[in-house]
Amino acid sequence: MKVNLPIPAGWQLFFEQLYRRLVRQLTSPWTKLAVLVVLAVVVTRKELTFTFSINGGSFFGSRASVFSDYDGGASAASFANYTTTKRNWTAKEIQQLAYVKDYRDIALREMATHGIPASITLAQGLLESGTGKSILATRNNNHFGLKCFSKSCSKGHCSNHSDDHHKDFFRIFDRPEESYLAHSKLLQNNRYRGLFELAPTDYKGWARGLSKAGYATDPSYATKLIRLIEGLELYRLDR
Fold first, then answer.
1. Tens digits of per-residue pLDDT, 119-147?
2. The model scores a pTM over 0.85
3. Three-state DSSP class for residue 3
4. Taking a C-beta distance cutoff of 8 angstroms, is the pair 16, 10 a contact?
5. Which residues contact 136 (CB under 8 A, 6 or more apart)?
6. Collapsing DSSP states into helix, strand and coil, what is residue 158?
7. Which stretches within the chain are classed as H helix?
């Protein structure tokens, strides 16, 4: 059985006034503006949270780490902390970065000792050794195409390869690190003296100076070095 209890007139009037006030409040311009502001804040905070969770580590940590976050994996995601910009590394670049990881400490040490920009050393190593896969690099541990000019070589000091001439002899090293040291020693020659007057961050000047001094016969040698340095952001090592 349904029972309808009468609502006192006073209570009925109270609820009608409350309803009208709520309607007026909710439909007022100030209420609409407040709702829009709250929604904007909520959406913005979500976007900021998403952005920082994706890019925070690379943006704030990349310059200090300088390759230290590279884990040697084979996927492009492995290099998320390498650069401040979003990059999709190609398979070739991933191999090049793996090479950089292997020899960056030697290049940095040579920069501190002899003043040769690490970016230049690594770019030359990459280019001359075919990312460490050339015959000279794999057989001779020679990553810079360093030739032997000695007239009386002992056994195991050099080997013959076809290069600019029919017979060219190239140095043999026990370890790749030794070729890096020999590279630094070579650049101490008078032919390259002017390069050390350049700013340590002037990798373009170094690249063009090496080409002009006759380090390589390739007329595009400087361009190739600069392209490698900028493509892999090796210039950051010089800072």
1. 999 999 999 999 999 999 999 999 998 88
2. no
3. coil
4. no
5. 128, 129, 142, 143, 145, 161, 170
6. strand
7. 9-26, 29-65, 91-114, 118-129, 135-140, 176-186, 203-212, 221-231
